[in-house]
Design goal:
Helix content of chain A: 25-40%
Strand content of chain A: 15-25%
Oligomer: heterodimer
CATH topology of chain B: Sufe protein. Chain: A
Distance between the termini of chain B: 31 Å
Largest interface: A-B, 18 and 20 residues
Structural class of chain B: alpha+beta
Number of helices of chain B: 5
Number of domains of chain A: 2
CATH topology of the largest domain in chain A: Aspartate Aminotransferase, domain 2
Strand order of the largest sheet of chain B: 3-2-1-4
Shape of chain A: globular
Radius of gyration of chain A: 22 Å
Order of helices and strands of chain A: EEEHHEHEHEHEHEHEEHEEHHEEHEEHEH
Number of helices of chain A: 13
CATH class of the largest domain in chain A: Alpha Beta
Largest sheet of chain B: 4 strands, mixed
Number of strands of chain B: 4
Helix content of chain B: 40-55%
Structural class of chain A: alpha/beta
Strand order of the largest sheet of chain A: 4-10-9-8-7-5-6
Strand content of chain B: 15-25%
CATH class of chain B: Alpha Beta
Number of domains of chain B: 1
Shape of chain B: globular
Largest sheet of chain A: 7 strands, mixed
CATH architecture of chain B: Alpha-Beta Complex
């Protein structure tokens, strides 16, 4: 059944509740999105009917479960237009996907003298794994700068930084703190010219806008299910098959071997090579269901919807006294991020909670960027398919109340 | 405003947040310590001039929410003149106040923090500066953190 924008809030049972005596206004979608009935039902159906361990099973349930799992892989592949389901490795989420590339590709290919290029707007999950592999291999890190509060990548620096020593360029598609939408296809093309492999953090983009890995031209792309209307504990790594098949395993165990001897083993090809142990097939089914749900709404329509709310919020918030909005003034992903002079983000979030509004305040796992901008924290409101213009108004009213209390404005 | 929220943001707390006491580096300090609250990025430096075992002067610097800033400010007013044993005892009382909501037996501004106990996520905001101050007193070179195994 195709999902529909009519009565979309009815699809999300969690939204129908009061928080602190007020209707819940959920604006913490960049942290995790809520789940539609279709996804919850897919999980329920799988466990009520098909659940059994996958692969090698000769009985009916195991065959059904295996089919469900591999159908989910194929569904995720079409969702991002991968060339083959074998290019989709199921992981726990974006963080694990990036760690997989850092550990396996990085461990096998990085040497002393090599450079890993990152940007100053990376989430800790696309920063710390590279620090770890740099320490292990002797490679060094280099950063493409961000242009201050407007939060754009300073592309004028790219030629200077993207030199032949750069073996890998990892960057976020959409910034979780700034809302910046980076020109991923251009960055991938530039990296390819110097022979650098690209890793795209798509946690904030894949469930929010059309995404085609082949049009983008990336080598790896990482994302999480729970930020795209699916459940926690499942995500995926896309990798170009020629790269994946040349990479060593990163974890050993059952399911990933073609033959095991007492002293040596041989590996299966991708994706099994990178999925040691019993995989998270139940949640993979839920991820497939969220792909169906989002494509039913249309990702162009989702991008338009979230972007309109974010621009409306930006415009209305910018009229408040003492506010500092960060991130681009023009095109942005579906979030706004801001700080008030003299009122800390945590106090703002505590007051908003009393109004039933769920916001996030803090460094958003972006400490180096925050330091660069001279901030310790911001308040972030992030939107998804079920949010409405009246919720932007509720946000603005709550901010006014908080300012009045703390600053007497 | 709800009763919980007005209990949290008492006048004493708002006043210390707006006009922090003893804020800034202390040029004559002979002890200092840094504290981090990694869950929110709050930071706090505490500077002490110890005269024997007694805190002759104390200042703080850092950034954070109203609760953390007011707590640091009020702490400096409470710890000045105390011995290290007295400071440890006072922290024990403060910890009791913010975790249980029990008002102190003796009248004290620290009682303003009793409302914090209704907001478990904010307890660390209130205790960060105290952790840093005690580390400075103990001469512990490690930065204080709200994420250690012992709270």
């Amino acid at each position: 059944m195709p999902s529909s924008w009519d009565r979309i809030r009815d699809e999300f049972p969690i939204l129908d509740q009061q928080v602190n005596g007020r209707p819940l206004v959920y604006l913490d979608n960049a942290a995790t999105t809520q789940k539609p009935r279709a996804v919850i039902a897919a999980l329920d159906r799988f466990y009520a009917r098909d659940n059994s361990n996958v692969h090698r099973g000769l009985h009916a349930l195991s065959m059904r479960s295996t089919d469900d799992y591999e159908d989910a892989r194929a569904r995720v592949a079409t969702f991002i237009n991968a060339a083959s389901p074998s290019e989709i490795i199921f992981t726990r989420g974006t963080t694990e996907s990036i760690n997989l590339v850092a550990s396996s590709w990085g461990g096998a290919n990085l040497r002393k003298g090599d450079v890993i290029l990152l940007t100053e707007m990376e989430h800790h999950s696309n920063l710390v794994p590279w620090q770890l592999v740099a320490r292990r291999t002797g490679a060094t890190l280099r950063y493409l700068p961000v242009t201050g509060d407007e939060g754009l990548l300073d592309l004028s620096q790219l030629d200077r930084l993207l030199t032949p020593e750069v073996k890998l360029f990892a960057f976020t598609h959409v910034s979780n703190t700034l809302g910046t939408v980076n020109p991923a296809a251009e960055l991938c093309a530039r990296a390819r010219r110097v022979g650098a492999v690209t890793v795209v953090d798509a946690a904030q983009s894949v469930g929010h806008m059309p995404l085609d890995v082949r049009a983008m031209g990336c080598d790896f792309l990482a994302f999480s299910g729970h930020k795209m209307a699916s459940v926690t504990g499942i995500g995926a790594l896309y990798g170009r098959l020629s790269l994946l098949d040349a990479m060593p395993p990163w974890q050993g165990g059952g399911g990933m071997i073609s033959n095991v001897d007492f002293f040596e083993s041989r590996w299966k090809p991708s994706p099994e090579r990178f999925e040691a142990g019993t995989p998270n097939f139940g949640d993979a089914v839920a991820l497939g269901a969220s792909c169906d749900f989002l494509d039913g709404l249309g990702r162009e329509a989702i991008q338009r919807h979230d972007g309109e709310l974010a621009r409306e919020a930006y415009r209305k918030l910018s009229e408040l006294p003492g506010i500092r909005l960060i991130g681009p003034r023009g095109e942005r992903g579906g979030l706004v991020s801001f700080a008030f002079e003299g009122v800390h983000a945590h106090d703002v979030v505590t007051f908003a909670d009393e109004d039933g509004i769920a916001l996030r305040g803090g460094h958003h796992c972006n400490q180096p960027l925050m330091r660069k901008l001279g901030l310790t924290s911001t308040v972030r409101a992030s939107f998804y398919v079920y949010n409405e213009a009246r919720e932007v108004d509720a946000l603005v009213a709550s901010m006014k109340r908080t300012l009045k209390f703390f600053a007497g404005v | 405003m709800s009763a919980d929220l007005s209990d949290l943001y008492q006048n004493v707390i708002l006043d210390h947040n707006r006009r922090p006491r003893n804020r800034g580096r202390l040029a004559t300090a002979n002890r200092s310590a840094h504290g981090d609250n990694p869950s929110c990025g709050d930071q706090c430096d505490v500077f002490l001039r110890l005269d024997g075992d007694r805190i002759a002067e104390i200042t703080f610097d850092g950034s954070g929410c109203a609760i953390s800033q007011a707590s640091a400010s009020l702490m400096t007013t409470q710890l000045k003149g105390k011995t290290s044993a007295e400071a440890e005892k006072l922290y024990g009382e403060f910890h009791e106040i913010v975790t249980t909501g029990k008002e102190p037996e003796e009248i004290s501004d620290l009682g303003a923090f009793a409302g914090v106990h209704s907001f478990p996520a904010r307890i660390k905001c209130a205790t960060l500066s105290w952790h840093a101050a005690l580390n400075a007193l103990r001469g512990d070179p490690a930065p204080a953190t709200t994420e250690s195994h012992t709270d």
